[in-house]
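REQUEST ID: PR-0412
SUBMITTED BY: lab tech R.K.
PRIORITY: routine
TASK: structure prediction, single protein chain
INPUT:
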Amino acid sequence: MKLMPTFTLNPETRRGPWADTARFRKGGVRMKPLRTVGFLAVVSLFAVGCATMMTEKSLYERLGGKPAIQAVVDDFVANVAADTRINRYFANANIPRLKARLVDQICEATGGPCKYTGANMVDAHRGMKITDAEFNALVEDLVKSLDKFKVPSQEKGELLTALGGMKPQIVGK
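STATUS: complete
OUTPUT:
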C-alpha cells in the first residue's frame, strides 16, 4: 500500500507548508478573493455575450428563410395586382421574374444567402414618377401580406425599415 503525503496546517496561521514559498507570498498563482470574483464576473459576461452573439438569428432566419419570403411575395404581388391605386405600374411586368427578384432582394436585405441581380432602384423606376401616396400604397399591400402570415411586429418593423430605405431611390424618379 502506497501512502500519500499528508499536509498539516500550522495551527497559528491556518496555512499549509506551501504558504511560505516565494510563489505564493508574491501573489503568483494565488488570487485575492475580490480579484477572483471580479475575474470570474468578467469571464462570465464575456461567455454570455459570445453565446448571445452566436445564437442571435438573422432577420432572414427569423422570417422563416426563403420559403416564407416566397410565400409573402406571392401574396404581396397578388395584393398589388388587385390594388387599383398602383396596379397599372405592373400591368406589363414579367410577373415570375418580378417575384424572383423581389424574393432575392428581400432575402439579401434581411441577411440571407441570396444575391439581388436586378437593376438598381433608380434605374428600375426611372420615368415612372411614383408619388409618395403610390409608394405608401405598395407598403400597405406588403403589410397586408405580412399580417396575413402573422409576421411578428419586431420582424415586420425591421423588414419595413430595411426596404423603406429604398424610398428616395424610387419616389419621383
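NOTES: Residues 45 and 51 are 10 Å apart (CA to CA).
REVIEWED BY: pending
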